[in-house]
Amino acid sequence: MKKVLRMTLVLIMALVANVAMAQKVVTFTAGTDKGSQGTVSVADNVAKDGISISCDKGAFAAKQYRLGQGSKTTFSTTTGTITQIVFNCTASADAEKHGPNCIGAATGKYTYEGMTGTWTGAATKVEFTAKAQLRASSIEVTIALGGDFVATPVISGDAIFAETTTVTITAGEGTTIKYTINGDDPTDDRGEVLNYTAPFTINQTTTVQAVAYKGGKASEVATKTFLKKALNGEGTMEKPYNVEDVIALQKAGVAPAKNVYVAGIVSQPAEAISQYNDINFYISDDGNTENEIMAYNSKYFKEANYTDMKQVPAKGDKVVLCGKIIEYNNIVELGRGNYLVSLNGKTEGEAQKDTLTFTASEALAALAADKQPQGVCYITGTICEEVDTTGLAKFGNLTYKISDDGTAANSLIVFRSKSFDGAKYTKDFYLKKGDQVKILGQLINYVKEGTTEKTPEVQANSKLISVNGHTTGVNHVTIDKMNANAPMYNLAGQRVSKNYKGVVIQNGKKFFNK
C-alpha cells in the first residue's frame, strides 16, 4: 500500500512538473542580447535559449533592435512551438515609423496597441515584413514545450473612452473563452462568469478578465482595465494632459506606455540641480500641493542639462513637460528623462532670453562653481576700469572689466568683445569707464597654457546688446570735449558729411543741419 501511495505521489509530482514546464518566455533585451550590426544595412541575427531571430536588413547591436524598412524577419525555434511574440517598441502605433504598426505577419494573428505589438499563433517559424523601420527595446518570445499549451487570450478596445467602447477578446483556434466584468475570477464558475461569443459594449469603467480553454487545459488569465473619463487633454503637444488626467490614467492602470505632454503649475520647485544636471519638482493644476505629480530627474529644453538655478522653473511657473507616466512608492510621476517643453508659454529660445541673464557677480559665482551655461548667455555690469583699446585699430575689439557697482572689486573680464551685432568698434564709437553694458557671450574659465590657474572671463567675440540703456551706438558717441569737427550721424546711425541736410547728431546732441 505504501509503495502504491509512493508511486502515485511521484506521478503527481511529475505531472505538476510537466505542467509547470509547459511554456517558457525568452526575453531579448536590446544592448544586452546583441547581434553584430549597429546600423540597418545588411543582415543580422541574434539567438538565445533555442530561439533565433534573423533579419535580412536589421541591426541587433544598436541601442534598440531595428528591423529595416522592407526587411523580412524570421523567428524560429527547435525546442517547442512559438505561441506568442511581443514587441516592446520605442514609438507608438500612431507614429509613422518605429512603432508596432510598422510590421505585419504572414501567419497567425498580429495586433498592436500603444507601443506594444503582439503576435499569437502556433508555429516553429514566424515571418514578419516591415513596411517601415521598427525599433524595439525588447522582444519577448513565448514557446510551448509540449502539445497541451493554451495561449493567453488578448483583450482589446479603447482603454480610455468618453461614452462607450467595444471590447473584443481573441484566443487560439479551437478554444473556448470565458470572461468576467465584475472582478470575479473567470476560472471559478461560482462567480458571474460569461461565455464569450462576440464583441460587447461597456459604458462605465470596467476591468475585463478572460481565460481560454482547450481540451480541458486552461490558459493564463488575461486582464485589461477600461477607463471611462472625459479627459481634459490628449497627451499631445497641442493638447497636453493636465495633472488631473495623469493621476486618473495612472490610478486606473491605463496610462499610455509612450511619452506624453503634460501641462501644470509648479507647486514645489526644485531646491538644487543634481550631479547629473537634472532636477526634481512637483506640478499641479492650481499650483497647490494637493493632487500634484512629481517631475523626476527632469531635464531642460530638448533634454539638455540644467547648468544654473536661474534656468529652474520657480513656484507658480506654468510649464509643459514631456515624459512617461509612472508610479513609484504611491507617487504618480513623470519618470526619469522627462524634459521641459515650454515655460510660462515660452519655448526654448524665448525662455532662454529671460532665464540666462547674469550680473557680473552671478557670472563669477557660476564660474567658480563650474556651473556656467554650456552656450551663450547675457551678462550685465558697469565698466569699472579704463578700457583696453589695444585691439581697436586692427581688430575692432575692446577688452574691459565689469562689476555690479562699477568698482574694481569682484570684477569680470570681457575679453576682445565686439560692438552691436558683432560689428567692429571704431575710433568714433567705443566704450569707456562707467558705461553700463549688457553683452551676449560665453562664460569660461580661461587656463593659460603651462599653468593651472583659472581666469574667469567672457570669451572673445562677445556682442554688445546695450550701453547705458541704448541699443544703438548713435546714442553713445564717445567724445573727449565739444568738437566742431566731430563726426556727424543721421538718425539711422550712418555717418554723414557736413553738407547733409536734415536732423543730425554731433557731439551727442541732435540738431537740424541746414
Automatic annotation (TrEMBL):
Spell out the InterPro entries in the cross-references: Fn3_assoc_repeat (IPR026876)
Q: Where does the UniProt annotation place the signal sequence?
A: 1-22
Pfam families the UniProt entry points to: Fn3_assoc (PF13287)
Q: Which UniProt keywords apply?
A: Signal
Q: What is this protein called?
A: Chitobiase/beta-hexosaminidase C-terminal domain-containing protein
Originating organism: Hallella faecis
